[in-house]
Design brief:
mainly alpha
Length: about 130
């Protein structure tokens, strides 16, 4: 399956790229501050500011999440915040879940993917607001 890459008009490039970079820095800060969540911010950035369709935005966000997560993990590691016994189990689970999710991504329509993603974001927000 091939994706079309949207092209930006020359006049809009500085504003568009500046906005993308600024929003991406905020997503990275959120990831470092909260221990995750940067990817949930990157998907709308890629959709709204870059014009990517839902599948391509989600797939591209994965590529951005890896270095963002590694950078955050290095800081946590250096501060003594890593626990191998729990972290190792979580790593195994997220690797398996990530592979499964990537396979499912190709099977879902863009609209359904947007609805599921929005419901997840709303659900997590409500859960955090009412009970952490």
């Amino acid at each position: 399956m091939q994706y079309k890459v949207p092209m930006f008009r020359r006049a809009a490039q500085p504003l568009r790229y500046g906005s993308v970079v600024a929003c991406s820095v905020l997503a990275g800060c959120a990831n470092g501050l909260f221990g995750g969540g940067g990817g949930m911010l990157i998907v709308p950035i890629l959709s709204r500011l870059c014009g990517l369709d839902a599948q391509r935005a989600h797939a591209s966000a994965i590529a951005a999440i890896l270095p963002m997560t590694v950078a955050s993990a290095i800081v946590y590691w250096n501060q003594g915040g890593w626990q191998w016994s729990t972290g190792g189990l979580v790593m195994a689970g997220v690797v398996a879940g990530g592979a499964l999710g990537a396979l499912l991504l190709r099977k879902l329509s863009g609209k359904l993917l947007q609805y599921v993603f929005a419901a997840l974001m709303i659900g997590v927000g409500i859960k955090m607001a009412i009970g952490g």
